[in-house]
Design brief:
By secondary structure, this protein is an alpha/beta fold. The protein has 15 helices and 17 strands. It has an eight-stranded mixed beta sheet with strand order 4-3-2-5-1-6-7-8, sandwiched between helices. The radius of gyration is 21 Å and the shape is globular.
């Protein structure tokens, strides 16, 4: 086979090659990693969880960068560019470097089948090893125990939250999913849990392997103080912390667990408290209650399951409490068919006066008509559009200056709105 020569070519090749996008298991990726001699000598922080893992990765990356470390960060999914998934020293990997990494993995793969995510994970580690990073942050793609990033033993592992999502792969209960998430923990090593009410399966697994479990609440505490807040990690206090730049009460817990992870690695990766403060104040992540315009206010949020919808609902309630009366909330909404669509709508229906809905393309996309049926059953006023960009344009055109438009339901939804905003032909961005 003639190998692709561009990043777009590589991504198209990998997508076309995979009949199934998700194949759990470590044997195949382990074999290829061995041929590539991927043996990281830098510390690894692995971050999993149903929601919040992207935020925890972002806090860790920003704090470590502020401390002067050369950081490798691997996350997924991306919004507009695959390059977003692989960052070195704060910069997205260049197309040429990603192509070199994909070529190296393909040469080592032989006849071993790899999924899109597995090939991307190996490529990221190959680049981090080549670049000589001081530390790498790896976000779990799905679950944890059998996810490709779990091939390597993390020096510290973080589980941001445990809730229902990807049940077809991880199980139908929090207990089953908690066991899969806890699979990233290692014996005798720091194991951070940001979930205030973790399932017993996670606690039992951590205890059974002898991990050094540190939980939000008993071991990691958030205390509000005048002018800021304090994070306590066991007997150590981190005082005078600024409010997180990202909105939502849950961000205090995410930031605190990032602090706990760095505290656990302080002998190998000392981070001054000032770097932690800088990181909290500077960390922003696209698509997390991101304000992209005013009059009308326009917000993007990747909330795509009930757990994330609850956080979005809390942010909307805070917004309403602190906004002048008179404006209404307008939704731009699209979801994937394999998500809990009804659960998300039930949580957010009380907040929105009107819904602009659309379908998402691809085999997992849910048609706009199917969303409309669910909204009609709940007596929600709505309109169906041909695609997300059209729904966004209609919402922007019809909203009043005091209104608020919120686009949510999937990473794909937010990505399509972002693309519409960046398009020079769309005056309603």
């Amino acid at each position: 086979m003639t190998q692709p020569t561009s990043l777009a070519g590589w991504l198209a090749h990998l997508e076309a090659r995979n009949v199934s996008a998700i194949v759990l298991g470590l044997e195949r990726v382990q074999a290829v990693a061995g041929r590539l001699a991927l043996q990281p000598r830098f510390p690894l922080i692995t971050v999993g969880g149903t929601n919040g893992k992207g935020s925890v990765c972002a806090y860790l990356e920003t704090m470590l960068d502020a401390a002067g470390y050369r950081v490798g960060c691997y996350t997924s999914p991306h919004l507009l560019r695959y390059n977003e998934r692989v960052r070195i020293a704060g910069d997205e990997a260049a197309d040429a470097d990603l192509c070199r990494a994909f070529t190296a993995v393909e040469s080592a793969r032989g006849d071993t089948p790899l999924t899109y995510f597995e090939q991307g994970t190996l490529a990221a580690l190959w680049l981090f090893q080549e670049a000589g990073v001081d530390v790498a942050i790896l976000e779990v793609g799905l679950g944890g125990r059998l996810d490709a990033v779990n091939l390597w033993d993390a020096d510290c592992a973080v589980v941001a939250s445990v809730d229902l999502d990807h049940q077809a792969f991880l199980g139908d209960t929090r207990e089953q999913i908690g066991f899969e998430k806890a699979g990233i923990y290692r014996s005798g090593r720091p194991a951070i849990c940001c979930d205030a009410n973790p399932p017993a399966s996670l606690l039992e697994h951590a205890a059974g392997i002898g991990a050094d479990l540190q939980r939000l609440g008993p071991d990691i505490r958030v205390e509000m103080a005048e002018g800021g807040w304090i994070c306590r990690v066991r007997d150590t206090a981190f005082p005078a912390l600024p409010r997180p730049a990202m909105p939502g009460a849950h961000q205090f817990g995410n930031a605190a667990c990032a602090i706990a992870a760095l505290h656990a690695l302080r002998e190998r990766l000392p981070v001054p408290q000032q770097a932690i403060r800088v990181g909290i104040a500077a960390t922003r992540l696209p698509g997390r209650f991101q304000v992209v315009g005013q009059a009308p206010r326009r917000i993007l949020d990747v909330a795509h399951n009930p757990h994330a919808a609850r956080a979005l609902a809390a942010n909307l309630a805070d917004l309403a409490a602190n906004s002048a009366p008179g404006g209404k909330l307008i939704a731009v909404f699209a979801m994937l068919a394999d998500k809990d669509v009804d659960g998300v709508i039930d949580l957010l229906a009380p907040h929105f006066a009107f819904w602009h809905v659309a379908g998402l393309s691809g085999p997992r996309g849910l048609a706009g008509a199917a969303l409309a049926e669910r909204l009609a059953a709940r007596s929600c006023e709505h309109r169906v559009h041909a695609d997300v960009a059209t729904a966004w344009a209609a919402a922007c055109r019809l909203a009043g200056p005091a209104d608020t438009i919120v686009a949510f339901g999937s990473f794909h939804t937010v990505a399509e709105v972002m693309a519409a905003i960046e398009s020079p032909t769309n005056p309603n961005g």
